[in-house]
Amino acid sequence: MVKPRPLQKGSRAALIAPSGPVSPGEPEQCSRVLEELGLVPVLYPSVHLRHGYLAGDDSARAKDLMEAFLDPAIDGIFCIRGGYGASRILPLLDFDRIRSCPKFFGGFSDITALHICLNQFCQLMTYHIPMPSTIVHKGLDPYTRRQILNCMAGFEEDAIENPPDIPFLPLVSGQAEGELTGGNLTLVASSLGTPYEIDTRGKILFLEDVKEQPYQIDRMLVQLRNAGKFKDCAGILLGEWTDCDPANPESSLPLGRIFQDLLVPEGKPILENLVCGHCMPSLCLPLGAQVFVDAEKGRISFPGK
């Protein structure tokens, strides 16, 4: 796995929209977010485009992503927001050319589709981080700011840690080591049966989601289970399940019960309560990095540190 060069003060950062569009004026606000992180933002055309629920048509969004990777004057790439659409551009990307130009890449949610491919096809470590649009709407707390700066610096910390007052919770005890993969559950599940299917063999699988009813989360977890993705993985990390409370609690299973039914029987070490996903504050994850999970101690560290 190739670890991208760290971003420094004054690094030029491409701001692209591979998924959904943003509102007028928001690209400029997102530029200021990057400036406050010490970067020089370079806005690509897709951040100003709208094609229904997409930020421009597929060719325009794919073109921006390719050009951002191939331009030697660009040091890193930030996806402006998620939404929907990243999966549509996967057939239009030249992963061989991207592999020859590794650089910092950050985003989450719908961007999970790109993380999986960049990790698996380009052997490029990428970063699951809050996006500029998220920061514009929710603000940037000190913890999350430190997390983002840590990613920009190449993830120099010894461990992946929640805010100090929020511990990781063990769901299944044990220890596991492997490459970190995953992201948004909806995108992970939708990769199945495609050329871009997630490979969980020997890996640590991270999952989170937003605005999904428990039965929908149940269905996607069953799909992953039936596809052998839990059997194949070495361990599981569960993040935030934002706005996933049942509309009718009296006729629903709680998420905890669903995890007990579908994940615990796999017998893999599982940590939950990662403050990561559609939430603020939010920790950041180096996807593609080797991590060591100690569910008994509630710790996620890096081998050799």
Q: Which tags fit this structure?
A:
eight-stranded mixed sheet, 21% strand, Rossmann fold, globular, alpha/beta, 29% helix, 305 residues, Glucose Oxidase, domain 1, 10 helices
Describe this structure in a few short sentences.
This protein is an alpha/beta fold and 305 residues long.
Could you explain the architecture of this structure?
- The protein folds into two domains: 12-152, 3-Layer(aba) Sandwich (Rossmann fold); 159-301, LD-carboxypeptidase A C-terminal domain-like (Glucose Oxidase, domain 1, 3-Layer(bba) Sandwich), CATH 3.50.30.
- The strands form two sheets. It has an eight-stranded mixed sheet with strand order 6-14-13-8-9-10-11-7. The chain has a six-stranded mixed sheet with strand order 2-1-3-4-5-12, with helices on both faces.
- Helix 3 links the parallel strand 3 and strand 4 (104-107).
- The longest helix is centred in the N-terminal third of the chain and has 13 residues, at 58-70.
- By secondary structure, the protein is an alpha/beta fold.
- The protein is 29% helix and 21% strand.
- It is globular.
- It has helices at 26-36, 58-70, 95-99, 112-122, 132-138, 142-152, 185-190, 214-226, 229-232, 255-262; strands at 12-16, 40-43, 76-79, 104-107, 126-128, 159-160, 169-172, 175-184, 204-210, 235-242, 270-272, 285-287, 290-294, 299-301.
